[in-house]
Amino acid sequence: MRRPPANADAATVIAHLVEVFTVIGSPGFPTERRLLQERITGWVRRAYDPAGTARQLVAVVASGDRRKLLRRIVAPTLVIHGADDPLVPLEAGRDTARNVPGARLRIIDGMGHDLPDALLPTLAEEIAGHCRGSVAGAAAAG
């Protein structure tokens, strides 16, 4: 998770981020390197802000334990977590699901800390099924 060199040009930043996303990506659903480079090039050209990334990481660390807040969630909740996420351990996803009343946990084998194209249909179906179930449950309760 090292940063690109200070004052790096766009090509250096892109190469660095390609390596980062290769490491944190889904080993069971790897994104073709050329496609990953194209996407990251678009991200960097559109909105690369090293200070913004640093602020995000500081906010994650500063936010502390949120389990008490999770226990107050009343909305139907689906937690999706990659079994092979090297950035956020699987136990963190399990802990989140345990702390949201009634949450359902869906662990996806081969998934890392990204949203690979090969999993988009699976993810869409998981989310759509969750929404369908939530609507049906609300109608039955209402």
Molecular structure report:
This protein is mostly helical and 142 residues long. The chain has two domains: 54 residues, no CATH class; 75 residues, Rossmann fold. 56% of the residues lie in helices and 7% in strands. It is globular and about 55 Å long.
Write a brief caption for the model.
With 142 residues, this protein is mainly alpha-helical. The protein has helices at 10-24, 33-47, 50-63, 67-70, 90-99, 120-141; strands at 78-82, 104-108.
The CATH topology annotation of the largest domain reads as Rossmann fold
Q: Determine the N-to-C terminus distance.
A: 48 Å
The CATH homologous superfamily of the largest domain is called Alpha/Beta hydrolase fold, catalytic domain
Overall pLDDT level: 92
Radius of gyration: 18 Å
Element string (H = helix, E = strand): HHHHEHEH
The CATH architecture name of the largest domain reads 3-Layer(aba) Sandwich
**Unreliable stretches covering 5 or more consecutive residues:** none
